[in-house]
Amino acid sequence: KGTTREQRALKYLKEHARQGDPDSVLETFDEFCRTQEWAMNAAEEKGDILDEIVRELQPTTCLELGTYCGYSAVRIARNLSPSARLITIEVNPDYAAVAREVVKLAGLQDKIEVINLDSADVIRELKTKYDVTKLDLVFLDHWKYLYIRDIKLIEEEKLLKKGSVVFADNVIIPGAPGYLEYIRGSKNYKSTFYSVHFEYMDDMKDGVEKSVYIGDE
Ligand SMILES: O=c1[nH]cnc2c(O)cc(-c3ccc(F)cc3)c(Cl)c12
Ligand SMILES: [Mg+2]
Questions:
Q1: Using CB atoms within 10 A of its CB, is residue 79 exposed (0-12), middle (13-18) or buried (19+)?
Q2: 11 is catalytic
Q3: Which of 64, 89, 136, 179 is the most exposed place for a label (fewest CB within 10 A)?
């Protein structure tokens, strides 16, 4: 076919979504994944929980690890206050390129910064190079073996404050070995598990974990 699934999804969005309308972009992406080709977006059920977290927390500075095509970046940013922003990190250059187009299509390029680098390298430079003081919301949605590495790095960099929320996708499928016991065993977090359907699969169960930072600043 010459094109990738992600490029076909972008083409569909450009042809069917309303430019500058994040809701339309998300609805159209969900429609594409249900009618044309499955893709690993956070999707409706996980997205609803993410919406709830953002609306309640009203975060100023958000970090997403694992942009993919930008579905959850758009989902987060559409609910952010005018001065709030989202930094989203995607190590795969093809995914990052598609995500930048999806963000533009949604009209959210002023709120979302897509960085095509390794998450650990960016986390180490958030304070010095990306002008970040503290992170109000972290969304872990990249690769299961990196959740624990990166949350420890975020703690080391003292990027969390009391009330910061760490939200993790896929804690059941594909699972995040080590992460759940780490975060649930830590006195610095209060964690809640949500049993949800795996994206676009009404007969498969996944899980997401919401952890509120209560530790030392
Ligand atoms: O790698 C992932 N990063 C972030 N989110 C992901 C997700 O939501 C789902 C999956 C996945 C699981 C099972 C399967 F059969 C195909 C894909 C992956 Cl592999 C990721
Ligand atoms: Mg995921």
A1: middle
A2: no
A3: 136
What does the pLDDT look like over 191-217, one tens digit per residue?
999 999 999 999 999 999 999 999 988
Beta strands, E only, 70-176: 85-89, 112-115, 135-140, 160-168
CB distance 50 to 75 below 8 Å: yes
Out of 5, 71, 170, give the residue to mutate to test ligand 1, the one with the largest number of ligand atoms within 8 Å of its CB.
Answer: 170
**199 is an active site residue:** yes
105/132 Cα distance (integer angstroms): 26
Give the Cα separation of 20 and 139 in Å (integer): 24
Q: Is the ipTM of this complex over 0.90?
A: yes
Q: What are the structure tokens assigned to 171, written together?
A: 């804690």
The residues pairing with 140 across neighbouring beta strands, listed in sequence order, are 65, 168
Stated pTM of the model: 0.99
Of 144, 206, 209, 210, which residue is the catalytic one?
144
Taking the C-alpha atoms of residue 151 and residue 186, their distance in angstroms, rounded to an integer, is 12
